[in-house]
């Protein structure tokens, strides 16, 4: 049964947005060729080319773990390595899938405060070892926005990609919440990716309002060679592909991808502002996307849970609240009121 009291534990607690749902309903009206030979899939790929203002190659995977792991594997040989932040989803939340699908390419983590990589850290790690005993550094992956909700500026991305070019490394972007970063920066998707030197992007659909699906976008078509085989081998080639591609048509052509994300970001901002003066509660990171992390005493968390709220504490021990495309203002206000009550009770 639907437990319909809205929660902010994760942006993928949300349902499917009307634009994605409508396109799926349309795609469901009849029969269509299988395995991506259908008109919806061609139209979705074109929608990406329009959005990114370039002739990119696009593949549709079921989820972000597969998209990231296969994209990284396509940039690496088994003896290569990939630089990522210590908090990166590819390192902490993909069960070794990038290493598995690349047949052993090692992830090299950089200790970071914000989850953001820097040119200096990349250079230090990439030039530390040149001998045959260490996996050769080949790729850098950035998460935009980071797992703690910070957004790389265009200048930061450009500086990272300049370092990558200098060192002969490819640049991959985990954009599970790509739309939230675009909404925050107010820049074009092209500026945040290929014009800033990103080679491959994983663009998240699930957290943006789709039922499922992430797009792997190659800005350098040569890098996409044989990627379809990789997807098929990994069990990521949908036979009824139109149901993975049609919702992209729904959210990209309507602009829902951006307004869904902007709504989540605004709710996060408003929520962070509303709790800013509460005793015992402190924000852990700047709020730039749709995430708010709050440090608070354990007993306050318990009281909040006792009031029926769900939230994760898996990053840095604080309470994480995520605001999705469908976050209801009245429900955010209820969370604020309950937080105020537990803060007062604990003070
Ligand atoms: C959610 C998320 C993913 C994708 O996760 P799946 O559960 O595999 O779809 C990838 N990267 C980041 C940063 C995420 O937050």
From TrEMBL:
Free-text function comment from the UniProt entry: Catalyzes the cleavage of L-allo-threonine and L-threonine to glycine and acetaldehyde.
Keywords: Lyase, Pyridoxal phosphate
EC class name: lyase
Lineage: Bacteria, Pseudomonadati, Pseudomonadota, Alphaproteobacteria, Hyphomicrobiales
Keyword Lyase: yes
Annotated coiled-coil segments of the chain: none
Catalytic reaction(s) noted: L-threonine = acetaldehyde + glycine; L-allo-threonine = acetaldehyde + glycine
Family affiliation: Belongs to the threonine aldolase family.
Domain Aromatic amino acid beta-eliminating lyase/threonine aldolase: 7-295
Record EC number: 4.1.2.48
Domain of life: Bacteria
Name of the protein in its database record: L-threonine aldolase
CDD domains associated with the record: TA_like
Gene that produces this protein: ltaE
InterPro entries named among the record's database cross-references: ArAA_b-elim_lyase/Thr_aldolase, Low_specificity_L-TA_bact, PyrdxlP-dep_Trfase, PyrdxlP-dep_Trfase_major, PyrdxlP-dep_Trfase_small
Cofactors that this protein relies on: pyridoxal 5'-phosphate
SUBUNIT field: Homotetramer.
């Amino acid at each position: 049964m639907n437990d319909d009291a809205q929660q902010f534990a994760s942006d993928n607690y949300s349902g499917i947005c009307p634009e994605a749902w409508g396109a799926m309903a349309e795609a469901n009206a009849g029969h269509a060729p299988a395995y991506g030979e259908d008109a919806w899939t061609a139209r979705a790929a074109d929608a990406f080319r329009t959005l990114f203002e370039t002739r990119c190659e696009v593949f549709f995977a079921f989820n972000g773990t597969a998209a990231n792991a296969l994209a990284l594997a396509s940039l690496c040989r088994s003896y290569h390595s990939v630089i990522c932040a210590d908090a990166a989803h590819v390192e902490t939340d993909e069960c070794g899938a990038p290493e598995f699908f690349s047949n052993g390419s090692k992830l090299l983590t950089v200790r970071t405060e914000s989850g953001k990589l820097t040119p200096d850290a990349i250079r230090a790690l990439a030039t530390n070892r040149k001998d045959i005993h260490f996996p050769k550094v080949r790729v850098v992956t950035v998460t935009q926005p980071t797992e703690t909700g910070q957004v790389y500026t265009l200048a930061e991305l450009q500086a990272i990609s300049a370092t990558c070019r200098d060192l002969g490394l490819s640049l991959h972007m985990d954009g599970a919440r790509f739309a939230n970063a675009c909404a925050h920066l107010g820049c074009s998707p092209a500026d945040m990716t290929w014009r800033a030197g990103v080679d491959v992007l994983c663009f998240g659909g699930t957290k943006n309002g789709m039922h499922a699906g992430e797009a792997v976008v190659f800005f350098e078509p040569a890098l996409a060679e044989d990627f379809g085989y990789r997807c098929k081998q990994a069990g990521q080639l949908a036979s009824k592909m139109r149901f993975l591609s049609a919702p992209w048509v729904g959210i990209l052509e309507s602009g829902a991808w951006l307004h869904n994300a902007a709504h989540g970001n605004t709710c996060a901002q408003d929520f962070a502002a509303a709790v800013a003066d509460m005793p015992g509660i402190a924000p852990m990171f700047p709020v730039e996307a749709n995430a708010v992390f709050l440090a608070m005493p354990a007993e306050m968390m318990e009281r909040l849970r006792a009031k029926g709220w769900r939230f994760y504490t898996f990053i840095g021990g604080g309470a994480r609240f995520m605001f999705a495309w469908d976050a209801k203002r009245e429900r955010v206000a209820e969370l604020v009121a309950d937080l105020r009550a537990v803060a007062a009770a604990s003070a």
